[in-house]
Structures are given as C-alpha cells and as structure tokens.
Amino acid sequence: MLEAAGIAQLFDAQLFDARVDGKEVTHLDLKAKPAPDAFLEAARRVGAQPSRAIVGVEAGRAGRFGCVIGVDRRGQAQALHDAGADVVAQSLIAAFSRRWLWLPKTWLWRQ
Fold first, then answer.
1. What's the predicted TM-score (pTM) here?
2. Sign of dihedral through CA atoms 8, 111, 18, 71?
C-alpha cells in the first residue's frame, strides 16, 4: 500500500510509528479490508484511540475511526463521500498537507 501510494520513502524515514501491512494481517490472522482489523491493530500498537485516528473509508466507518479520508483516484468523490468519507482528496500527499487537512487541536500532529 505504501509503495502503491508513493509514500514508502516516508516510512523508511521513520515518520510512522507502526506498520500493519498485508503480511502482518496474514501473520496475525486478522480480517482483511474492508474489515477494520488492520487499522485497529495499528491504533493499538501506537496507543491511539480509534475515534482520534485517520483511516480509509469502509474500514474507517466500520471501526468508528474519527476522520475517514477517501483518496479519489478515479473521479468518484461523491461515491467516497456516500460511503462515509469525511474528507476526499486527490492524493495521500494532499490529504496530509497541514495547510489542507484540519485536525482538532487536541490531536497530535508530527512535524
């Protein structure tokens, strides 16, 4: 996923505190997306409450995460909103730009 999104280098630069990928899902016998299991495991690993985390659309709604981001790569912004996205962006880079994404002041943001 990180490679497909073009942000694998960010993980290598230690900008993420935990990684739960397809290999981990299989190893831990978690349900795959759209089940929220992988996201819930990642939240557990970093000590975050799901209600204060940001994740993908279907799994995010199912896991009751606080901010659900849809990445519109195919001109389906309305469908992403209809599926439960709080925010729709054209890329993950755009979604995580501090100028673009508003987060409650009580949430932590890595500089």
1. 0.61
2. negative
